[in-house]
Amino acid sequence: MARGDTKSIVKNTTMLMFMNIATLVFPLLTLPYLTRALSTDIFGFITYVKALVAYMLSFVEFGFIISSTKRIVENIDDLDTVSTIVGDTIAAKLLLFGVSLLVVGILMLRVPVLSTDILYVFLACITVLLQIYLMDFLFRGLEMMHVIAIRYLVAKVISTGLTFVFVKGNDTILWIPLLEIFSSLLAIAWIALEMKGLGIRIAHSSFHAVLRILKHSVTYFATNIVSLSFNMLITLIVGIVLKKEDIAYWGMCMQLVIAAILLFSSLMNGVYPAMVQRKDFRIIKKEIMLCMPFIVVGCIAGYYLTPWGLGLVFGEKYVAATPVFRMLIPVILLNLPSALLGWPSLGAIGRESKNMAATIFGLSVLLLGIVVLLLTGQFTLLHAAVLRSLVELVLLLSRAFYCYRFRHEFHTEVR
Predict the structure, then answer these.
(1) pLDDT of residue 405
(2) C-alpha–C-alpha distance, residues 253 and 46, integer Å
(3) Residues 83-122: b if buried by 16+ CB within 10 A, e if exposed
């Protein structure tokens, strides 16, 4: 099968869709259980740590899921070069992990909610360290998404199943990161066998090479970390300004939103290698036209079924979060076209700086909104949700503007 052809795109996108369905299903299996087994305060703490770890992981990834994937696509027939890319990327991630660990230590001294269970926070950070060796960027570049999907499924089956066995209440929450560590170690062993079979090694070159790939990935990192800030920044402020019960409500709503987004994020990851090679905007249009009807129907159903669904799945104490989740539904509606117009479109034609500009503009709107809400004493969960949805619209319009402006650089123009 030729790389970058239609069958390859369909296969890789399907495998990533399968993985993201699993990403959606497994949290929805444990989330209702945890909301009932744990107190609201402890669930809020776990949600907050999860948000912090996501930010930490994004920093450690540093955009390598884009930049290193792109380099592997460009050198796919040279296994020695691919091995060096893998080694240098891992070395760079380890360096960034050390920095992020220091930052987490400082935050633990400043953010009260993180002092709830210091050992839990430490173990959660270890899960980030292990993620470095899961090599998603390698198998995306090789267009072997089935390796990523199967590995993820097996790891999640293990950690999710054992969660129901070991996590029984507030005094057993340490099992949550411990099970993630265990399943990650099994996945790493699996990945090592796959790499051996492909003849790919972890071949380091030099410290200067590591610095070069960090420099090369700055633009990708800046855009990704800013994009993540749309969710994480509000979450961090909620943890500082509002009470633990509000943290629990916000965390539950954001997990649902992120789960819905992940269901379709495989489209972006699946088409990116093909867009790098072909720069055919018809790929983007086809994906948007195919998926948006399902997203629209899902959003409408979600709006009307929210009170019933939250009560049934998470318990009556979480029905109070209904207005917040409803105000976050536009994020789900707009995220897919916004994401597809980002790296898969602007990044594929070498307009990374424009994608960055659009993202920074969206972040500026978010920061301005947060400052206004804080200064006026109106920072509530509902207002935060409205602001997050507004920012998603700003981001979509900004990226659409740049895609249209540079439409002649696609092999098939934006219309």
Answers:
(1) 93
(2) 14
(3) bbbbbbbbbbbebbbeebbeebeebbeeeebbebbeebbe
Instruction: Note the pLDDT tens digit of each residue in 144-175.
Output: 777 777 888 888 888 889 999 999 999 999 99
Q: Helix, strand, or coil here: 167?
A: coil
359, two tokens = 């993202």
At residue 11, does pLDDT exceed 70? Answer: no
150 Cβ contact list (under 8 Å, min separation 6): none
Contact in structure between 174 and 119 (CB atoms under 8 Å) = yes
Tokens, residue 380: 């509530």
- For residue 411, pLDDT over 80 is answered with no
Q: Which residue has the tokens 């795109």?
A: 9
Q: Is the pTM of this model over 0.90?
A: no
How many other C-beta atoms lie within 10 A of the C-beta of residue 371? 11
What are 183's two structure tokens?
């399943």
C-beta of residue 59 within 8 angstroms of C-beta of residue 100:
yes
Distance between CA atoms of residues 28 and 32, nearest Å:
7
Mean pLDDT computed over every residue of the chain = 86
Q: How many CA atoms lie within 13 A of 128 on its CB side?
A: 29
- SS3 at position 358: helix
Q: How far apart are CA 25 and CA 22, in angstroms?
A: 5
Contact of 336 with 264, CB cutoff 8 Å: yes
Nearest to residue 37, comparing CAs of 165, 124, 183? Answer: 165
Which residues, at least 6 apart from 126, have a Cβ–Cβ distance to it below 8 Å?
Answer: 177, 181
